[in-house]
Amino acid sequence: MASVGATPGRTPQGPGPGEASASFPSPAPVPDPREAEEEEEEEPAEIHLCVLWNSGYLGLAYYDTSDSTIYFMPDAPDHESLRLLQRVLDEIDPQSVVTSAKQDENMTRFLGKLASQEHREPKRPEIIYLPSVDFGLEISKQRLLSGNYSFIPDSMTATEKILFLSSIIPFDCLLTVRALGGLLKFMGRRRIGVELEDYNVSVPILGFKKFVLTHLVSIDQDTYSVLQIFKSEPHPSVYKVASGLKEGLSLFGILNRCRCKWGEKLLRLWFTRPTQDLGELNSRLDVIQFFLLPQNLDMAQMLHRLLGHIKNVPLILKRMKLSHTKVSDWQVLYKTVYSALGLRGACRSLPQSIQLFRDIAQEFSDDLHHIASLIGKVVDFEGSLAENRFTVLPNIDPEIDEKKRRLTGLPSFLTEVARKELENLDPRIPSCSVIYIPLIGFLLCIPRLPSMVETNDFEIEGLDFMFLSEEKLHYRSARTKELDALLGDLHCDIRDQETLLMYQLQCQVLARAAVLTRVLDLASRLDVLLALASAARDYGYSRPHYSARLLGVRIQNGRHPLMELCARTFVPNSTECGGYKGRVKVITGPNSSGKSIYLKQVGLITFMALVGSFVPAEEAEIGAVDAIFTRIHSCESISLGLSTFMIDLNQGQGAPSSETRRISTTNLYRSLALCEALLAMKG
User: Fold this and answer.
1) Is 285 strand, coil or helix?
2) Residues 205, 61: contact at Cβ < 8 Å?
């Protein structure tokens, strides 16, 4: 997305706490001493952040008083723990955080912890809740389009202003638009920077710019579509037409061999956040390279099988907190914990020089063994499935065992009681039985006689009539009352006591929830890297190398990862871009000669390297890349109201400075006009 405004691009701050600092370096500007003196006299900058999280996606925008610019981040996937939001907070350190009063429970919990962090320097951010109506989609759009911006000439008509703002702000990112609208509302109420001015003086806004976290590579949605990194298709099953889509032929589709659901989620997250962090990239590649060694194939297959039993632990823990645990949840948790112990044992035998193996060996603590031992000793899985409720094994609680013994011996005992009751009944009654009904107790059951027509006919001396069911009369007798007093409601008593034991077991598990969450994080990471290793083995991929000095890429005999699976024969092609080979390439050739495939191949190989995957090439050296753009074919949208050239121009002007390095694959037929326009803008 383009950045437009009267101020220069904002320089990102350093990495947040705990982040690796190794990455592609950017040239640092030399400060002017006179500028430093002027900056000392200026008031400290304030940053006000507005954020929304919904259905696993995060939208945010913030206002920086140092350059009077609004920065926005297009809708991005984020975990329930809101790790992406934490990275944003660590990087920009806002003075206030604005959000909707009607917010998700995860966001509310996160902001509550943020407000209680006394160690944050220089002080904790102020948490501000605005009414949810201030974040409405339509009112936010109207607020954006009707704003008074100094960078928009007064001569612009309303239609021209809408078209101009549509080229800057991603109106298709609904959460971001709502966050921008809420931020403008907050700025208008607080009158940030103009507190002492007349009310008709508005808060100065000198530009809207896209915000990208340090070390992340910027990729727009068109690039994901053009390169077929993701591709959704309608599900072929008639039973799943209304339920959603399936992944089609795409890079994600051929690399996704994850065994657990959370591994698939993590792989998708890596695809949406390619990184420049060389330490992180090389740590991923080290694991993949280890599993590609022939002697480690059996180990990889064993780990793959174990990962198949790692299930949705957070959902189970959530049900435990709400006391909604099912029998299947205990089975799943038991298998998950024992599989985690198997992973720990396997990783302890692997080289501890690899960070992931060391983390699993150390952080899969003995708490896992304690949880597995408790569940295995307490839960009666066979009995629980038969009764569809939580039941415990024998010898756990003597009182429960005694009541179960009585309940098991009831049929023969009640037969004897019924024989004695029949001796005292009217001789016309041929038979009777004593039954036990949970919550009601013991009852005497007598067949209905032909003479018993009216309700008054049901009365029998010495018996209390209860109800008629299936032509049988049910009564309370003196003996059944004695049984109620002596034995009580055995079934309910047993269930209550077993429920209490289940609650105690849940408390033991929840007290060790941290290790279960860590198991899921590390297991999903291992699952993703095993999937990438499997794909690299099957498709003949090689390890890429990174060079901070190279402003471009060098690829020897590269292949298109999707086309080589579809074509009978595929001819590899090399690419050298950067240094004395030049950074701009003009590709010509007849129709269907493979120009577009070649362009996409370069983009895909670069993307795969920045995800931490092996690449389809004999050798690949990736230089300093902080963004990937494509414009191979037009993806116009009538709703945007933008021309094809305007969309091209909008993408191209995203470079805020001459130091920015980007991989751009652009169609030859638009390249000349686009270059002329960019040169005119930069000049």
Assistant:
1) helix
2) no
Q: Hey, how many other C-beta atoms are within 10 angstroms of the C-beta on 249?
A: 12
Closest CA to 546 of 615, 597, 601, 629: 615
Q: How distant is the alpha carbon of residue 569 from its chain centre?
A: 39
DSSP-assigned beta bridge partners for residue 441? 437
Give me the amino acid identity at 670: R
Is there a contact between 50 and 62 (Cβ–Cβ < 8 Å)?
yes
b/e code 511-533 from CB counts within 10 Å (16+ = b): ebbebbebbbbbbbbbbbbbbbb
First-to-last C-alpha distance (Å) of the chain:
20
User: How far apart are the C-alpha atoms of 229 and 603, rounded to whole Å?
Assistant: 10
Judge whether 507 and 499 are in contact, CB under 8 Å: no
- How far is 671 from 668, CA to CA, in rounded Å? 5
- Per-residue confidence (pLDDT) for residue 501, from 0 to 100: 92
* Segment 240-277, tens digit of pLDDT: 544 556 777 899 999 999 988 889 989 998 998 899 99
Q: SS3 for 550?
A: coil
> Residue 562 in contact with residue 249, Cβ under 8 Å?
yes
pTM value surpassing 0.85: no
**Least-confidence region, from 110-124, 207-221, 630-644:** 630-644
564 with 616: CB under 8 angstroms?
yes
Spatial separation of the C-alpha atoms in residues 255 and 638, rounded to whole Å: 34
To the nearest 10°, report the CA torsion of 327, 329, 335, 339.
-170
Alpha-carbon span 387 to 381, nearest angstrom: 10
Element (H, E) at 506: helix 490-510
Which band of pLDDT confidence, cut at 50, 70 and 90, is reported for residue 22? low
Instruction: List all residues 6 or more positions away from 518 whose beta carbon is below 8 Å from its beta carbon.
Output: 363, 364
Task: Assign 245 to helix, strand or coil.
Answer: strand
Cα–Cα distances (Å) from 590 to 176, 270, 559, 594, in that order, read 43, 37, 20, 9
Q: Three-class SS of residue 241? A: coil
All residues at 6 or more sequence positions from 413 whose CB lies less than 8 Å from its CB, including other chains: none
Q: Are 2 and 170 in contact (CB under 8 A)?
A: no
Asked if 91 and 138 touch (Cβ cutoff 8 Å), the reply is no
Structure tokens at 362: 């150390």
| pLDDT of 567 above 90 | no
- 341-350, 380-389, 400-409, 660-669: range with lowest mean pLDDT: 660-669
d(CA 458, CA 471): 12
Sign of CA dihedral 113, 114, 120, 125: negative
Please state, in angstroms and rounded to a whole number, the distance separating the CA atoms of residues 333 and 207: 51
d(CA 346, CA 359): 12
- CA distances 130 to 98, 100, 134, 251, 607, Å, are 7, 5, 7, 41, 40
Q: Which residue has the higher pLDDT, 622 or 567?
A: 622
pLDDT in the model for residue 485 = 77
In sequence order, the β-bridge partners of residue 446 are: 473
Q: Which residue has the higher pLDDT, 457 or 443?
A: 443
Q: Which residues are 49's β-sheet partners?
A: 62, 97
Distance separating alpha carbons of residues 571 and 126, to the nearest angstrom: 59
**How many Å apart are CA 672 and CA 450, to the nearest integer?**
103
